[in-house]
Every structure is written in C-alpha cells, then in structure tokens.
Write a structure and sequence with these properties.
alpha/beta, 14 strands, 4-stranded mixed sheet
C-alpha cells in the first residue's frame, strides 16, 4: 500500500467535513468520520456498527502501510438514532455521516423493524442519497468487519464491488435515493443486493426482492442477471453456454439494452421486454484446434438468446408469483394509461401474479477479430 493513498483518503475526508455545513461541531478532533454502517434487529431494538476512519492510525507510517485505516464501533438502542448515539458515546465523539459509503442490513430484521429502517434512511439527516444499501446473508456486522483483502477502507471497497457488479450483471447496486423512489411509489417494490461472507472474501450474486417491507424472494445468480438486464442496468459481464461442437463457450457482454413497457390486455397485466445485446466470443472449451465458422456464430447467438431469455423469464416469474413488483410493471402501466392504472391500483397485488411476459432477446455475436480462431 502506498502511503500517498492513505493521505489522500484522510485529506478527502477532512475536506468533506470542512466544506459541509451539516457538521455540528467546532473542531475536527470532535468528529469521527463514518465510512460504512451495519444495522441489525436486536431483542429490544436495534444493533448498529459503524466503520469510522482512524485518523491517528492513518498518520502512522508503519500502520498506514498495513492497509487498513478504519476502526469499528457498535451500539444498541430502542431505535436507530439511539443506537447510533450509544455507539458514539464509546468514542466520546460525534459520528459524521457525510462520507458514508454503504449501509448493510441484517436479514434477521423483522418486518416492523424493516419499516423503521427504511423510514430512517429515507428521512434522516444522517442518510446520504448516494449511499449504497445491501442485505447481509448472516450477521451484517461480520460483513462490515471483514478486511476486504486488507483494503484501506473496507466499506469503500465493498460499495465499489457492488457498483462494479451491477455493471457486469453479477450484483445489484441500490442507493438510498433509488430505494426511496421504489418504496414510496404506490405500486412499485424495492430490491437489495445480498452480500455474503466466505472466509476473508465478500461477494454478491443474489438479489432480494420485496413485497412492501416483506421479503418476497431471493433471486439466484442467473435470475439476477436476467433481472438486471430487464431493468437496463447491465453494461458488461460474462455469459456462458454449452455448445454441442465447441463445448462450454463464454461470451463477453459488450452492451445490453432493454426496452420495456406494460399494459392491461383483456384485464391481464402484460409486461413486454425487447432486449438487444452485443457479444464477443471470449473462450471456447474445444477451441484450440477448431476454427469458428459463420454457422457456429449463428448457433452460438441462438444459444445465448435462449439462455438469456430463460434467465429473464425465471426472474420475472419469481418476482410476480411472490408478489413483488420490483420490475415496476404497475408504473409502466401508469405511464401508458393513467385510466388503466387507476383500475388496478386498489387490488394491484392480487393481480400481479397473473402477469404475463412477452420477451424478445436478440444477440449479435462476433469473434475478437477475423484472423483469430475465436
């Protein structure tokens, strides 16, 4: 780790405090800068863990080179605000949230407490609109405590992992402002990436979809890719198919564009998705002595289209059959026809499982170059 990287993080955090009028303190020494936070439900309220910058450590060259310039503190309380205050008392400092990168919720939070969590992070001054939100598989404090390969700021590395994951179709990335838009909408439902801890690694390949504040279902890795494609969130990634001649073949997703709409057709919600992708053949299991012909490319395109269509359809069915409108089918109907929207709004969740999907997937596949076998 370079010492300059430590210095840059420290300077950036201090400048953020100096330039922000929200910091209700006279001295920087009275502030502890929060970079990440976890929230879990306890027997008598909430448990909060905050990852803060340890400015004293970042100023020490020997410790700075160790790669981590943070410390974690915890607190409990009957509500989130009290839990945060109790955590801050252990430091005798005010927690400053203007630099916060991520909030990790526990999957043990019951529905009533989940509603409190959402209301807090939508309305509180301590919540930033661009902070990333996720759901932990297990104890969220354990995820926050993970060192993320000795990263300078583990919470920052985790947030970046989710953002990059969405671009590659492997993980969702949801900010507080995006969640607020979904949560406060009359028919839409929100979703969150699921973060799991395995040894010293954190990863996300699943997506939790909600019905109101009820956890409706969890999409697996393939369903997550289909879900994100339909939501037009994917800019890259890898797709793998099994071909009878070439064996296991992987593609790099160069671009992905989805046009979606919905309408009531004979009283049934119909969701239409028109998806176009550009792919490059990346790796072929049997490709060492085989040249890829035009007929191979056509066959691979058909395989990719079939595979992706299956992922999208599976994600659609899991969402609608479990009462989650994370795909915003109701909002699409409202955009098309306000009168139709008014017809369904009172019993929308009863109608949602009857929804049908009309989907087309078109893949344009190419080799890396014309001279290469693949």
């Amino acid at each position: 780790m370079k010492k300059s990287s430590v210095a840059k993080i420290t300077v950036a955090a201090l400048l953020a405090c100096l330039l922000c009028s929200c910091a209700k303190t006279e001295h920087l020494s009275d502030i502890s800068i929060v970079e990440g936070m976890s929230v879990n439900g306890g027997a008598d309220g909430f448990e909060v863990t905050a990852q803060t910058l340890n400015l004293a450590k970042s100023g020490n060259a020997a410790e700075g080179f160790s790669g981590n310039v943070t410390m974690n503190i915890g607190g409990r309380g009957e509500n989130i605000s009290r839990a945060i205050d109790n955590a801050a008392e252990g430091l005798s400092k005010q927690l400053y949230f203007g630099q916060n990168r991520i909030v990790i919720f526990g999957n043990g939070i019951d529905e009533n407490k989940r509603r409190e969590c959402l209301d807090y992070f939508i309305r509180s001054n301590n919540s930033q609109p661009d902070v990333a939100l996720c759901l932990a598989q297990g104890n969220p404090a354990d995820v926050l405590n993970n060192q993320e390969h000795d990263a300078l700021v583990p919470a920052q590395a985790l947030s970046k992992m989710l953002k990059n994951g969405q671009e590659n179709g492997s993980a969702a990335y949801v900010t507080a402002s995006e969640l607020a838009n979904l949560y406060l909408d009359e028919t839409s439902d929100f979703y969150l990436p699921v973060v799991e801890l395995e040894g010293e690694n954190t990863y996300s390949s699943k997506t939790a979809v909600y019905d109101g504040t009820r956890l409706a279902a969890v999409l697996d890795k393939q369903q997550t890719l289909g879900f994100l494609i339909m939501k037009n969130k994917v800019d890259g990634g890898i797709l793998t198919v099994d071909d009878e001649r070439l064996g296991k073949t992987s593609f790099e997703i160069v671009s992905s564009r989805a046009k979606t709409k919905a309408a009531l057709v004979n009283g049934v919600p119909e969701f239409t998705a028109d998806i176009k992708l550009k792919l490059i053949v990346n790796e072929i299991e049997n490709g060492a002595d085989i040249s890829v012909s035009d007929s191979d490319i056509t066959r691979l395109e058909n395989l990719a289209q079939k595979e992706l269509k299956g992922y999208c359809r599976s994600a659609f069915e899991v969402c609608t059959q479990n009462g989650s409108d994370a795909l915003r089918i109701g909002r699409h109907i409202a955009r098309r026809s306000n009168s139709q929207y008014r017809q369904i709004i009172s019993d929308w969740k009863a109608m949602l499982p009857t929804s049908v999907l009309k989907i087309t997937v078109s893949c344009e596949c190419s080799k890396i170059n014309d001279n290469a076998k693949i």
